[in-house]
């Protein structure tokens, strides 16, 4: 085979379009960035978790992605920046301003820059592009939408934002349902133009090991996206965020139980039905193989632990080997 033929064959596999949340999803993205070139990967990040504090636009999942890929994230928490300081937060507390959402001094700079660009008329996509370049990143990181599309959690007594639930309430309230709202209180918003264009360019779609109900759901709830993914002709690969009934990170199992999803690969199949044709799950869940096949989905068993960089690269290589 000629060199040109080899290149054309490889190009059919790329770019990969990865749909991701924050801490869990970026582990796989990090693995991809170590073995792919920037033109071979596009990452769409959930913005349903976004909030506004002190007049500043906060994009936790985008920031976690940027900080992690630039090597500047807090390794212990998985979010925020390393060697952070908290002088401004402490000053606010002394003045009686309760800031339950802890913003560090270095982290604050990112939010100031983002808000400045947004108020100057830039879209969130344009703003995110500028910020990731400031952090020295070449890989595309795109917000799912340029519009506000906020995840709201309905509990017995309250409707709260994701950050209220996750940070302020520490994921303790029981969730009765999840809804999404834009600024007009409507339950649908438009995907960004670059997201729509990326779907046309992509050879494969990868659902990162993020919480399906909190991180992936907002993405596929955007106008027209679910249908586009259902009709997508390439491989659609989902990586499980759970193993043997336990989540690797966060309240995934708790929320699946509360919203009547079996906290197992079967519950994930219920959520992703029609959206994926390949399901990567841990060998510990091999007993679900036949049930998955019955749903018309191909199961592939691979250790899901993504703790070390080698783990992340191993999973990225496995996914690339699957792509036809």
- The backbone outline, from C-alpha atoms, is globular
CATH homologous superfamily identity? CofD-like domains
Secondary structure tally, helices: 14
The number of domains: 1
Strand and helix order: HEHEEEHHHHEEEHEHEHHEEEHHEHEH
- The gyration radius over C-alpha positions equals 19 Å
The percent range for strand residues is 15-25%
Distance between the termini: 17 Å
Biggest sheet architecture: 7 strands, parallel
Name the helicity range.
40-55%
| CATH architecture field | 3-Layer(aba) Sandwich
Unreliable stretches covering 5 or more consecutive residues: 1-10
Under CATH at level 1, the class stands as Alpha Beta
Strand tally is: 14
Mean pLDDT across residues = 93
Structure in words:
The longest helix has 15 residues, at 105-119. Mean pLDDT is 93; it is low at 1-10. The chain has one domain (3-322): CofD-like domains (Rossmann fold, 3-Layer(aba) Sandwich), CATH 3.40.50. Strands 5-2-1-9-10-13-14 form a seven-stranded parallel sheet, sandwiched between helices. Strands 7-6-8 form a three-stranded antiparallel sheet. The protein has a two-stranded antiparallel sheet with strand order 3-4. With 324 residues, it is α/β, with parallel strands linked by helices. The protein is 40% helix and 17% strand. The chain has helices at 3-11, 23-33, 60-69, 87-94, 105-119, 124-134, 162-168, 193-201, 212-220, 225-230, 252-258, 265-272, 289-294, 309-322; strands at residues 16-20, 41-45, 51-53, 56-58, 140-143, 150-154, 159-161, 177-181, 204-207, 235-239, 242-243, 246-247, 278-281, 298-301. α2 (23-33) packs across α14 and α5 (105-119) crosses α6 (124-134). The protein is built from 14 helices and 14 strands.
